Amino acid sequence: MVVVMAPGATEADIRAVVSLVETAGGDAFVSRGVERTIVGLVGDVQQFGSLNLRGMRGVTDVVRISAPYKLVSRENHAERSVVRVGGVPIGPGTMTLIAGPCAVETPEQTLQAAQMAQAAGATLLRGGAFKPRSSPYAFQGLGEAGLRILADVREETGLPVVTEVVDAHDVELVASYADMLQIGTRNAQNFALLQAAGEAGRPVLLKRGMSGTIEEWLMAAEYVAQRGNLDIVLCERGIRTFEKATRNTLDVAAVPVAQRLSHLPVIVDPSHSGGSRDLVLPLTRAGIAVGADGVIIDVHPHPETALCDGPQALVDGDLRELARLVRDLPPLVGRRLTVAEGDAAPVPV
Amino acid sequence: MVVVMAPGATEADIRAVVSLVETAGGDAFVSRGVERTIVGLVGDVQQFGSLNLRGMRGVTDVVRISAPYKLVSRENHAERSVVRVGGVPIGPGTMTLIAGPCAVETPEQTLQAAQMAQAAGATLLRGGAFKPRSSPYAFQGLGEAGLRILADVREETGLPVVTEVVDAHDVELVASYADMLQIGTRNAQNFALLQAAGEAGRPVLLKRGMSGTIEEWLMAAEYVAQRGNLDIVLCERGIRTFEKATRNTLDVAAVPVAQRLSHLPVIVDPSHSGGSRDLVLPLTRAGIAVGADGVIIDVHPHPETALCDGPQALVDGDLRELARLVRDLPPLVGRRLTVAEGDAAPVPV
Amino acid sequence: MVVVMAPGATEADIRAVVSLVETAGGDAFVSRGVERTIVGLVGDVQQFGSLNLRGMRGVTDVVRISAPYKLVSRENHAERSVVRVGGVPIGPGTMTLIAGPCAVETPEQTLQAAQMAQAAGATLLRGGAFKPRSSPYAFQGLGEAGLRILADVREETGLPVVTEVVDAHDVELVASYADMLQIGTRNAQNFALLQAAGEAGRPVLLKRGMSGTIEEWLMAAEYVAQRGNLDIVLCERGIRTFEKATRNTLDVAAVPVAQRLSHLPVIVDPSHSGGSRDLVLPLTRAGIAVGADGVIIDVHPHPETALCDGPQALVDGDLRELARLVRDLPPLVGRRLTVAEGDAAPVPV
Amino acid sequence: MVVVMAPGATEADIRAVVSLVETAGGDAFVSRGVERTIVGLVGDVQQFGSLNLRGMRGVTDVVRISAPYKLVSRENHAERSVVRVGGVPIGPGTMTLIAGPCAVETPEQTLQAAQMAQAAGATLLRGGAFKPRSSPYAFQGLGEAGLRILADVREETGLPVVTEVVDAHDVELVASYADMLQIGTRNAQNFALLQAAGEAGRPVLLKRGMSGTIEEWLMAAEYVAQRGNLDIVLCERGIRTFEKATRNTLDVAAVPVAQRLSHLPVIVDPSHSGGSRDLVLPLTRAGIAVGADGVIIDVHPHPETALCDGPQALVDGDLRELARLVRDLPPLVGRRLTVAEGDAAPVPV
């Protein structure tokens, strides 16, 4: 950290800062400039976090220099990680397609959606049994009955299951059915849930908060990691901006930035960011091209009667085009579409 | 709702929309314009929510006309509500000061902060025992030990207690100590928590999500209300914008807007919005002047060693100025500072 | 400035930074930490601005420490300035009301609006002859004919005139009629216009860009100041956020922040921020209470037929309430309503 | 437009709306619902724009249904346009690379950058002679001397020139040297400049305002088009959000959205959105993959001493990779890299 002193700060003000830092077990280097003096702090950033340096007399600003996350940082873990979900890898060299219905409604609908997904090249099945909805009057999901349907469809198709958990006390239940726990954008700072997911023994798909900075997203991952689980996949799903022509603004640059700051895999969600069917394929192409380790996409056999987010689900011809692009686009960025376990080796990066 | 047809929509497209609406039990009125046709939907908006009108052929847009919240709406409840917390009213005619430490640290610190708050005119004590922190390495609160301290300080000072709950399964515990449950900005869409709070038999202080629209805030209140609890106080605490000179941007206009849309009381949090001590009093004045039903403010006997948000806690001379302004400013907007139970009647609005 | 080196930066990388800074005539202090090294730069920040420090090997970040503006900064000009417009002061100790029609339409409408404004306590008349409109199909203003009407109304009422200029090459013309030049939010980074206004010999009312940071706003003022004109009044008029219930989000905290960073007066525009009539008085109260040096408000004798922004113009009873609050509220914040030249002395701050 | 009446609106209120619309020459259709009544307006939207419907008694909301832009809309011009710049096409079927230095500094630097650009596949040269800079102390460009350098380099390389104009009164001068006029993000609502550019007889490259909605961007294009110039290319260059890890947030979804709403070509600027060299290639890939009609990229022979935006300029190996991706990626989205005039035919879409 760097403490910036005000132009009129006195020697006593500067000494007070140095003294407080040293008392906390750190070292402080004073650089006196023509206009102002700065104090560089050396030591463990956690030591200084609880000091109220900003409130001291003569202090103008306190600038954090090093990242506040450790376990998920790439600084101490230079190689990018591969996370395996039911045997399916997500990480460098591959591009993994996760697809399925936004919400599990019936066994038939879920199976059909899974088969559509598989035909398009998906190796993981998504599907929601617990749905966080802005309105208490909207469909909230089937709960455990939905989890059972997902497990049956996994049996039928062989696709490992990714599904959302919305409350810390459901984590054990959901983990008993699912291969990967999804934590949604509205729970990106639900720390009790993050910690529970960190102890569940399942890989976690962690969506970025809709107004979360990349740093906050990595801090949320740090909450999971701190409980002993480093099998975390980050998912960029669009952020909230002033633009209303799309549901959210897909921040594609977040993919390379997060991959530079963290060793964790990063995927994108083109369905929930754009919020309309005609944007899903363009945003999927953008996500793959920018270098995402995977994409997660809504498909539905009958979008017009879907109970959740029907307007953005892919169907029919869209899926043939999806199949084509997840096959042809990844090689241009040094990747290969992930196929079912053991079928092919990833391209080396 | 209004369905807007594309310029090239055919009669068959229009008939399909009308037919779907009628099947769902509604009525549809078709208005044919020179350039385009619109279809007005009449009936219960809940009926239409699950129809995928937007995905139908020839449909350009679907515009919602009526508010999606009912119980908290002012449309069916014209008079503004008063919520009582341990006998202290929050609502029209009064201006209630809630103050106390950001986090409960020790019995002494909490008692001192409570006495400072009371001397400044506060009739409710705030203080956090469960703290949601962006970093897993930051102080997370004392938990139940903190709740006990708050209860002791209530005993000593007579101030009813407002404290945060961060997980659905702590609601019962927190409610057994607190007079009012606070739900923080990071949990503004933690629906399991909102529902649990709705069943706890305590008034709820509901902070706006840091990127939540006013409508989403009212929908969150609707989640609480739907479980039978209408004793909800809304709290504007600043929203996330591109401006970085302040921690958040206090959206003062949200106060009159929310008061027009909902019958619930609306207060402001000048401490967490500005994020620095020198902004707390100016923002408190702005909040009272804009017409808030109360303000909630951090005070701390020793901000320089506070474990949480020290830089924004008021101390010493700030508190005398706070006492002056909560006494002098409310009468200019037709209000009177709330005093301890039975001491004075509110000014009629 | 502080240059933050990457954890793996070599001694040669550090020496290269130091050497580049010294070549540019500055001094560099190296602080070696356990995890990383920082280099503090001492000297004139303008020297370093053109160095590509961020692009050097081993450099992680470059953090600017001192403000990039000089002439408008409070660092070298501790006392807050008073700007006089046709003899009317704007600055500490007073609260100046500027009011009038959004657009000048006819001599009668302008005169009536001016008289309404004056009756409410205004000492300056606002009114637009050149209107920047998002749509080329909207009313663009009367141009010079509008300026003549404003001059006639000034003659009749004695109110000095504030009016907008939208193009550098109209500055001379507008300055020949107006007492103060307004630069609108859409031109907040129209540098040619800012420079021309800096040379026009008239005070300037500078609105904040709708997505401009406080720093960018002060940099825009620096453009005016650099051409020799320090008679600048800053105007907060709402920023663009995700919230759509209001036209813009009035950032009241920007007032004390800008007053701390700059010696220039700061006023607020409650009409254009809220965008609806029922928000104008609440936001005016908030603006005065937060400590603004003035407010600028739209009034119109017949809002229902106004050619521009009618929905937000005050009329009738609103104006009596406005008169009351601009008289009663300022004393609570140590100010007095500005009255016509020589009529009263401001309250000392 | 649709006028939404309040639940308590009377028949007289409804009749007043209908009557006002009819007086303005339109037709109004009344749809009476259980809870509220809506009035659909039929006729030319321009007629209704100046009516203060929102201010009438009993009116809750006025919802605009059709687009406010006409000439640039795709509704009346279904086929996507091709804009030719000095013979080089930008539009469907091709992907045009525009590259060059951010600022023209010297003849040598400009020529070298142009040759680097050409080697990478660029068919148009970018380069700034007039630079809009946030700070008055930053390099403002060489002005006409810079234009002459660009003209010389065009002579030498055959690359037509795209360059920015920042003031309406420089348009004629810039147009006398340039093949295409660029209007930057800070001038996206400088209407005098837009109109002057519409009369200059040169194609216009129109950047989106950094906080401009897609609709405002199209309205800015409408300003140009209204003066008789439909040779407009839209450029998405990143928008301002809360995220600070990147300079701006590249809104890739804006490309397909703008292409759906307008017939104009849409390109992206990966250099100014990300703001750092390591993001330029990933964002270029995303831009091409999402379906942009072109990309515009900063290159510089010596980024470490560049006078403007050096940190984001491509150099050396980056350029070889750029050459590879602009060749290999477009065919996957049904396009072909634009080559010098007459060299190849575009792929049909």
UniProtKB/TrEMBL annotation, chains A, B, C, D:
The GO terms describing molecular function are: 3-deoxy-7-phosphoheptulonate synthase activity
- Is Transferase among the key words of this record? yes
| InterPro entries in UniProt | Aldolase_TIM (IPR013785), Class-I_DAHP_synthase (IPR052899), DAHP1/KDSA (IPR006218), DAHP_snth_FXD (IPR041071), DAHP_syn_2 (IPR006268)
Residues annotated as signal peptide: none
Question: Domain DAHP synthetase I/KDSA: where?
Answer: 87-329
- Which keywords belong to this entry? Transferase
What Pfam families does its record include?
DAHP_snth_FXD, DAHP_synth_1
Annotated Gene3D superfamilies:
Aldolase class I (3.20.20.70), Phospho-2-dehydro-3-deoxyheptonate aldolase, domain 1 (3.30.70.1140)
- Specify the enzyme's EC class, one word: transferase
Q: Give a yes or no for keyword Transferase in this entry.
A: yes
* Entry EC number(s): 2.5.1.54
Q: Where is the DAHP synthase ferredoxin-like domain?
A: 1-66
Top-level taxon: Bacteria
Xref: NCBIfam families: DAHP_synth_Bsub (TIGR01361), PRK08673.1 (NF006421), PRK12595.1 (NF009239)
Q: Can you name this protein?
A: 3-deoxy-7-phosphoheptulonate synthase
State the organism of origin: Actinomadura rugatobispora
The UniProt gene name for this protein comes to aroF
